[in-house]
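Wait, can you check?
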Amino acid sequence: MKVIRLDYPHSYTSSDFPPLVMALGFFDGVHLGHQKVINQAKEMASLHNQKSAVMTFDPHPSVVLGKSQERVQYITPVEDKIKLIEDLNVEYLFIVHFTKEFSQLLPEEFVKNYLVHLHVKHAVAGFDFTYGKFGKGNMTTLPIHSEGFFDVTVVPKLEKNNQKISSTSIRQSIQTGEIVKANQLLGRYFTTKGTVIHGKKRGRTIGYPTANISTDRDYFLPQIGIYIVKVFVNNIWKQGVCSVGYNPTFHNPEGKQLSLEVYLLDFEQEIYGELVTIEWHKRIRDEKKFNGIEQLKAEIQNDVEKTKEYFSSLNEET
C-alpha cells in the first residue's frame, strides 16, 4: 500500500495517479461499518479495473476546531489505522493533514482539490460523511459538486443488535468497560500498544510479577477494572490478566497516576523496554482495595483461573 500524506495546499494533479476509487472518512477504529465502506470501494475498483484508495484525516477535526483543550484520544491512532487499512489490501492511502486552513475550504473546493485533482473516478462514503467548511458538504451534495468527474456511492447505516455501528458507540463501550460489545462492533479485538517500564516491583514479592505498560496518551483506555487480555511480546501471544487502575491496596487513588499492569501467565522473561500489544477480551471485575496481601493474592489467583477458563472455552469453540 502506498501512503501519501497531503498538506494544504498540495501540488498533485490527476496525472500523478491512476484512476482511483476512493473511500472517504475519518475511520477511527476501522470498525465493521468502515470496513463495509472500504470493501465497497475495493469491489468497485476491481469491477472497473481501477485502483482502490482510502482518504482519511489527521488529527481529528475537533483537535483543530474544538474549543476544549483536552487531548483527543483515539480507538486507532494514525499508525494503527494505517496498519489496519493496509491489512484490508487497499492500494493507496491518502492522509490529509487537517489544519485550520484546510477546514476553511468550501465543499466544492475540497472536491476539486482533493478528489478531482487526485484522479478519483468513484467516491464511496457512509451516509453521514460531511466535507468542506462547517461540514456543509454531504452525500447529497457530493454528486452535484463532482460535476460529472466521478461517480458516487453512498453506503447506508450498518447496525448490529439494533445499534448503529459507530466510532462513538465503540468509544462509549470501551470507556464503560464493555469490551465484548466494543469488539463485536469493531469486528476484531480492541488493541492498544505500549512500552514495558519499571514499576514498584511489588507483584514479584507476592508471586505475581506484573509488566507495567506505558501507553501512548492518544489511546482510549478501558474503564478502571480487571480484564482478561492477550499480550503480543517477543513475537508470541501470551494470555494475561490486566489491571487498569490505581493499586488501591497500596495507594490512596486520589492524585495517583493511572497504571496499566499485566500479569502474564506462564511467562518469566525480562521484557523491560519492549513494545507490546494488548488485545482486550473481557472485563471480569472492579478494582478493589483489599485488607491484606493474602486477600489480594487469593483474588489474583481467582482472576487467573477465570482467564484460563475463558481461553479454554474459546479454544473449544474453535
Q: What stands out?
A: The first helix runs from residue 32 to 47. The radius of gyration is 23 Å. The CA atoms of residues 126 and 298 lie 49 Å apart. The chain has ten helices and 14 strands.
